[in-house]
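Exam revision sheet. Question 4 asks you to relate a sequence to its structure. Input first:
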Amino acid sequence: MFENDTVLIPRETSWFGYYPDGAFDPVLPPQQTKLYQEDWIGLKALDDAGRVKFVSVAGDHLGISNSDMRKHILPYLKDKPSA
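Answer key, structure tokens:
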């Protein structure tokens, strides 16, 4: 999630968090949404398997720094031995 995001409102939607039905406060974390709890898109299954990381970085929408890119994205792009 970009901490200063001005495109996604609320910014927590980048993590699939959102408002409760019929309200604009508070923002629910993803684990408290129907999308997650009912596993509409497989997010809960992935999270339960330890395959989801909720990362927050400084900056506006898609304004990721080179250092954050190296820290959070590059490790997933490196070759790894097949299991």
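Marking note for examiners. The radius of gyration is 15 Å.
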